[in-house]
UniProtKB/TrEMBL annotation:
InterPro entries found in the cross-reference section: 4Fe4S_Fe-S-bd, Fd_FixX
Keywords assigned: Electron transport, Iron, Iron-sulfur, Metal-binding, Transport
Protein known as: Ferredoxin like protein
UniProt region (Disordered), positions on chain: 1-23
A Pfam family of this chain: Fer4_9
Keyword Transport: yes
Any one Gene Ontology molecular-function term assigned to this protein's record: iron ion binding
Gene3D superfamilies: 3.30.70.20
Amino acid sequence: MRSKALPQVGSHEPQGANRRDRSLIHESIDERIANNTFFVDSKAHIVLDGSICKDCSDKVCVTACPAQLFVELYDGTVGFNYEHCLECGTCLILCSHDGALKWNYPRSGQGVNFSYG
């Protein structure tokens, strides 16, 4: 009775890789984000009340946003630029201050268009 040969460790294609040139493997997160296109809606899908953020001690949105769209301003408030938002919801999940953030998906046809699906 013959047994099936086990696949070698590391012999499979990594998920999400371009099978022809494996280019995705060698791109940093910043390079992948730079390939996305954005259809900026005139109506912001995220509204931030930066004055509420003034009382926040950790301002986790500033460090957690993968697109780096939140900025702590000189007066302790937080500023936000929605135009290049990845719509991941990280800010909404991590914000612990009620009313500081209002988040909705952009209108149909607006927002981010991911290059890698």
